[in-house]
Design a protein that fits this description.
Strands 2, 32, 33, 34, 35 and 36 form a six-stranded antiparallel beta sheet that branches. This protein has a six-stranded mixed beta sheet with strand order 16-17-20-21-26-25, with no helix packed on it. The chain has a five-stranded antiparallel beta sheet with strand order 1-7-6-3-37, with no helix packed on it. A hairpin with a 5-residue loop joins strand 25 (about 410-415) and strand 26. The protein has one domain (about 1-545). By secondary structure, it is mainly beta. Helices cover about 15% and strands about 40% of the residues.
Length: about 550
């Protein structure tokens, strides 16, 4: 025990010096001079809100807010990066701040409120960071003695309930989400925190994504991993609950996909077509041995991640009706992906569109110190890549392209082991992340357009898959956010509607924050709402109609 105590003390001293962060920042600073001029001031993305605005305030309108827009844009993201004298290390760590832009009769109101998660409450009570997040290790309780602090390392720690990634709407309820098994029900009008739900009380999973899919009948689908001797990636089905029953009452595991090795793959989203789910097992792994040691040595989630480019990416196809896993194994050269754009079926193929990076560099770039140094954006931003997976494979096909779709450069070839190796088509020169489509009408179906942001968070891009081109929009001295599409009533075309994007001012003492309203067809500004209170950056969100 004395040896363990001594080792833990040494590790705590090393941890205080943050070697992982220091090494990352050292690499980043060597490029800082050039990157600052190219990428601008990204420190605004990790600015903390000094106070909440729980009551809706009026905004000043410039231009026109279409009167047919009647609903609320609810957004979620990290809004507090400092607790007492402590600071979070990573952009994924900040405590959740929820935002509501209510649009009605050509006017916009704004309000925000911190999610009252257990992590928020504990940190505020201690006036320091005591709970571990994605890239930040929480401090032990200062009231504990050394033995108590070390002993606590042996206790299994619960995952974070700091649900700062996305929101999900089910019936008239709304939930804040992250990648842990916890979700928080929030009031969609007041943004008050109502109730925490634990998915593990209903399903044998250890994680869940913050990017569920939903169908017109109210059924939701998600993915969650189960860790054990063999890690499994599970497709989760959540049917609408009976009146008065818990949200997850009718939840089940539709299918389990076994991991290819001991160390599971990290994933953030997945694809869904009319008849299939698409899961990409990428070569960013979670080192199991490091996870087992994490409690003892106080490491964060980023410390257990390992990118192994020698491993191919693998596409898994699951029949959404039966839960049956497709027998063909589809592989591709290694890449890293946060977000699926869309997937659909086309003449015996599944077309999968992704935002891909060459490697996992973006995760390390997203440390707060790097962003303050202006080196958040990777050397190359995320690219729009299309893969085409032939559902029927002739095992005697030989070395020829199995993709028979017109107007595509995608290819797929049969390997000696019976797998199919897929080569993507790069759709345009646009950098694209945080992709959004006309989801209600085109998710899982052939489509033409997607919207997203570029690597340095300064532009909104619209990519045209048919013409393989793109358009851009930006505003000087502002950082953009995920563009949310809202369809016009009785719209006759896929892009007939508006784009809503919350813009953070680089210097709010000179220019107010904004909600920008763009014509989704040509990205021309229609109107804007000026917000003169604290507003921070946000990651994901959704538009819900007023009822």
């Amino acid at each position: 025990m004395l040896q363990i105590l001594a080792r833990a003390q040494r590790h705590q001293r090393l941890l205080a010096a943050s070697p992982h962060l220091a090494a990352t920042c050292s690499r980043a600073r060597s490029e800082a001079a050039e990157a600052k001029g190219e990428f601008g001031d990204l420190a605004a993305l990790v600015r903390s809100a000094k106070q909440e605005t729980p009551e809706a305030i009026k905004t000043s309108i410039t231009g026109e807010v279409p009167k047919w827009i009647d609903g609320s844009l609810i957004r979620n993201g990290a809004g507090l990066f400092e607790v007492g004298k402590d600071k979070y290390n990573h952009i994924f760590d900040g405590l959740s701040l929820l935002h509501r832009f209510n649009i009605k009769d050509g006017q916009v109101t704004y309000q925000n409120r911190f999610l009252r998660s257990d992590h928020y409450t504990k940190n505020m009570k201690a006036n320091r960071i005591v709970c571990t997040e994605f890239g930040t290790v929480g401090h032990p309780d200062p009231c504990h003695n050394l033995f108590q602090r070390v002993s606590s390392r042996f206790k299994k720690k619960k995952a974070s309930d700091n649900c700062n990634v996305n929101v999900m709407s089910i019936k008239d309820e709304m939930y804040a989400m992250t990648e842990s098994p916890y979700i928080w029900r929030i009031d969609p009008k007041t943004l008050e925190s109502v109730e925490k739900l634990d998915i593990t009380e209903f399903l044998a999973v250890n994680t869940s994504t913050a990017h569920p899919h939903y169908t017109n009948d109210g059924t939701h689908y998600n993915m969650g991993s189960t860790f054990g001797k063999v890690t499994k990636y599970n497709i989760i089905k959540i049917e609408p609950a009976d009146a008065g029953k818990p949200l997850l009452q009718k939840s089940s595991i539709l299918c389990s996909i076994p991991s290819r090795g001991r160390d599971p793959s990290y994933y953030h989203s997945f694809g869904m077509t009319d008849n299939y789910f698409v899961y990409v097992e990428q070569p960013l792994h979670l080192n199991v041995m490091k996870i087992l040691k994490a409690n003892l040595f106080g490491t964060s989630f980023t410390d257990v991640m390992e990118y192994r480019p020698e491993n191919k990416a693998r596409f898994h196809i699951v029949n959404s009706r039966t839960g049956e896993l497709h027998s063909t194994e589809y592989t591709a050269d290694a890449f890293f992906c946060f977000h699926h754009i869309n997937a659909y079926e086309d003449d015996g193929h599944i077309v999968v569109d992704l935002c891909t990076f060459k490697n996992e560099e973006i995760i390390h770039r997203a440390f707060v110190e790097n962003m303050k140094q202006g080196v958040y954006a990777p050397a190359k931003g995320s690219e729009v890549m299309r893969y085409a997976l032939p559902l029927t494979v002739d095992k005697k096909a030989g070395d020829h392209n199995l993709v028979e779709l017109p107007n595509t450069e995608c290819s797929a070839r049969l390997e000696e082991d019976g797998s199919v190796f897929c080569t993507p088509e790069r759709i345009s020169d646009a950098e694209l992340e945080l992709p959004q489509i006309n989801y209600a009408s085109y998710n899982g179906k052939p489509y033409q357009y997607t919207y997203g942001i570029n690597a340095d968070v300064s532009e909104i891009n619209k990519v045209d898959f048919k013409n393989k081109s793109y358009k851009s929009w930006s505003m000087e001295d502002y950082l953009v956010s995920e563009p949310v599409f809202v369809a016009a009533p009785s719209s006759g075309s896929e892009d007939d509607g508006v784009i809503l994007s919350a813009l953070v001012s680089v210097d709010p003492s000179k220019k107010p924050h904004l909600l920008a309203i763009l014509d989704a067809r040509d990205l021309k500004e229609i109107g804007r709402a000026e917000i003169n209170v604290d507003m921070t950056g946000s990651t994901h969100g959704m538009f819900i109609a007023n009822t």
